[in-house]
Amino acid sequence: MGLEVDPVELHLSGGTLATAADDCGPALAATTGQDCGRGFPGTSSAAHAALSSAWQEQNRALTAALHSTAALLHETAASYVATDETNAAGIQKHSPAANPPPDVPPLNL
Predict the structure, then answer these.
(1) Among 24-28, 71-75, 79-83, 103-107, whose mean pLDDT is lowest?
(2) Residues whose CB falls within 8 Å of the CB of residue 49, separated by 6 or more in sequence, listed in order
(3) Phi-psi map region of 103: left, alpha, beta (phi>0 left; psi -120 to 50 alpha)
(4) What is the DSSP-derived secondary structure letter of residue 106?
(5) In principle, which of 25, 50, 79, 85 could form an S-S bond with 63, CB 3.0–4.6 Å?
């Protein structure tokens, strides 16, 4: 009993993940509260700006990681399809129908 992988499902998951990454980037960026930095006195304003900048950088990194994972899912699906096609061709090449014994007429089913 092995692992069953459906390349179509991998492509669908990759597409869903890429869409989620496109949607979450702007949504996360909107939560940084950049506009509230003006209300903090003294060094608090600078600390808020630094944290806001770090938050935005982490958001960009998260979005990039989600897109990278989506691309890997698509590559994996393509690899599974290519492997299946290669294996099918190899099996077909060595099947009895492709290699009948000498002096024996082929089977007509």
Answers:
(1) 103-107
(2) 37
(3) left
(4) P
(5) 25
Dihedral, CA of residue 59, residue 63, residue 69 and residue 72, to nearest 10: -140
Supply the pLDDT for residue 33.
61
Question: Is 104 part of any domain?
Answer: no
Domain, as residue range, for 61: 12-33+43-87
The region of weakest confidence among 23-27, 29-33, 87-91 is: 29-33
Identify whether 1 is part of a domain.
no
Number of domains the chain contains = 1
Q: Which band of pLDDT confidence, cut at 50, 70 and 90, is reported for residue 26?
A: confident
Asked if residue 51 is part of any domain, the answer here is: yes
41-50 CB burial, b ≥16 within 10 A, e <16: eeeeeeebee
The answer to whether residue 106 sits within a structural domain is: no
